[in-house]
User: Fold Fumarylacetoacetate hydrolase family protein from Conexibacter stalactiti.
Amino acid sequence: MECETARARDPRIAAGMARQLAARAAALRDGARPLGWKVALTTAASQRAAGLDQRVVGHLTDRTLLADGAEVAIGGWSRAMIEGELAITLGADLPPGADEAAAAAAIGALSAAIELVDVTLPLDAVEEVIAGDVFHRAVMLGPPQASRHGGDDTGISVRASLDGVEVAREDDPRAVIGAPVDVVRFVADELARHGERLSAGDVVIAGSAIPLTPVAPGQRLRVEVAPLGALELSFTT
Assistant:
């Protein structure tokens, strides 16, 4: 996965990011605490559906952060879906244009993550999708594993189960979301295009390593990102 600094910009991305970051700034002024960023549209299929040739970025704050074991009311959602993800914690600032060695040095830890999304629009409504934080509704983060500093994703697998039945699995997340060093390089470059920076302490959830999986009230989810840990939550109306 290449660094995308030189890629021509799609005006829909620029317009959507301007609106998204304005909403983020308003939330921060209102007391929200920044957590970091999310990567979306990681697969070629999702990019084709959106009419794009790149991934996109969203943001995270503590207002959508869930504790392990939480219950989430999704009865009013349009299309509730879960994503099993790898979270990358930055131990140092990462400027745009960084090489692989600098990106690796900036990664302080890896951990398990779950993102909840509500797919309310077609993917080709690019500006609106990005302005709305790419369907983001909630995020759950596992404890950072500093033993994986530098972005070491060797041997990591992702498995999701609903009510004890496995519904999705990926034994090679890198094949879907890319190497952690390339993920953070992309985010640093993309944020710089929109006047933001990737900073020490930021968490980047790298995009779903498994296919988006629909969920319904009454179900219980477990996502295991072995050997980093597992997270659970349940869904209500």
In short: The domain at 11-236 is CATH 3.90.850.10 (Fumarylacetoacetate hydrolase; domain 2). Confidence is low (pLDDT under 50) at residues 1-8. The first helix runs from residue 11 to 29. The first strand starts at residue 34 and ends at 40.
